[in-house]
Design goal:
119 residues; two-stranded antiparallel ribbon; 6 helices; 10% strand; flat
Length: 119
């Protein structure tokens, strides 16, 4: 998190500089998301911003991947390096039911409004 925070000033500066160069009609576009039309950053703006960031997003994603792997490895070591081949290959009946319920709930639209996505 400290590494991300250290880049805040340059990330915001680059966004501000690019925003000053592009008029709103080139900075924003509209997308259809379900029944809603929402305003989003345009592809032109996103592409230009990505170029100005010079690979920063990819570097942060790679770092995140390494950190998640390190957490999992550390948890495995701290657990005494159990034999993972002994784990069941298929979910239990209870886990299958839970996953089915979760999938069914994901298909239903949210019952509460999401900020910026109101009708």
């Amino acid at each position: 998190m400290g590494r991300s925070h250290a880049a805040v000033d340059s990330v915001l500066r680059l966004e501000r500089e690019l925003s000053q160069k592009l008029p709103d009609d080139r900075k924003y576009g509209f997308e259809q998301r379900g029944n809603l039309t929402v305003r989003t950053y345009s592809r032109d703006f996103a592409r230009a911003y990505h170029q100005r960031l010079n690979g920063q997003v990819e570097r942060q994603m790679r770092l995140a991947l390494r950190l998640v792997g390190a957490f999992w490895y550390t948890a495995w070591v701290d657990a005494g390096q159990p034999d993972l081949n002994a784990l069941p290959r298929t979910p239990s009946e209870k886990e299958q039911q839970r996953l089915a319920l979760e999938a069914k709930q994901a298909e239903q639209p949210p019952k509460t409004a999401v900020a910026g996505h109101e009708d």
